[in-house]
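Revision sheet: structure tokens.
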Amino acid sequence: MSNSSKTALVTGANRGLGLETARELARQSWQVILTARNEKKGTAAAQSVSAEAGREVQFRLLDIADPSSIAALAGSLHEQGTKLDVLVNNAGITMDGFDEQVARRTIDTNFYGPMRLTEALLPVMSDGGAIVMVSSGAGELSILSRDLRKRFSDRGLTQQGLLELVESFVDAVRRGRHSQEGWPTSAYGVSKAALNALVRITAPRLEARAIRINAVCPGWVRTDMGGPGAPRTLREGAESILWAALLEGGPTGGFFRDGKLIPW
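Predicted:
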């Protein structure tokens, strides 16, 4: 199958790593669907990539933190008969401060968003496709207490059990007890630790369809989130994402940086 007949959807792709990933896939003759929650910025990004690649890049509106927005996107793709070969869950946020509101919004965007979108789009994913969760080294288990590390890494952990863990974090923040209960003062870190766990839990369920799902850490990249002092360029950061997206017959259920398995 040629790249021109393959389709990739990239979330949060109006800037940064998402835009760079969409740009590189389009350069490699993929059909690209670029999503963003801001229609004006997303449309401009799609037009820019289209002009660079010499091929049409579609824009679709998507607010990853809004279940109704996810349902609308999934419904339209299904109605149009679109099949996805790659899904890159890149959209995410980091917020200043730390309180229940920050914890809630960060978890909703960085964890529930990718989880819900993945579930919604599984019916339009091609067998043998790839799902990439853009994670971070900030989500390594070392940020958690020993007890929480054991619970997150438990091979018997189910998706429902993971959701209960995530909600217990938000509740602990609400009660002002997160530190005493072993959680870090970082909603971003917890959201990425949960995302990594989700990958491990989900992988076995997708094996029958040969769909690979992996988490990747792009490293510290010069984006709006990473800041101008970050050591990695956008191109360098996107390489890990592209590796996981384009790998054929490779690993599933892992956490990778630069194509290498890293400790979670």
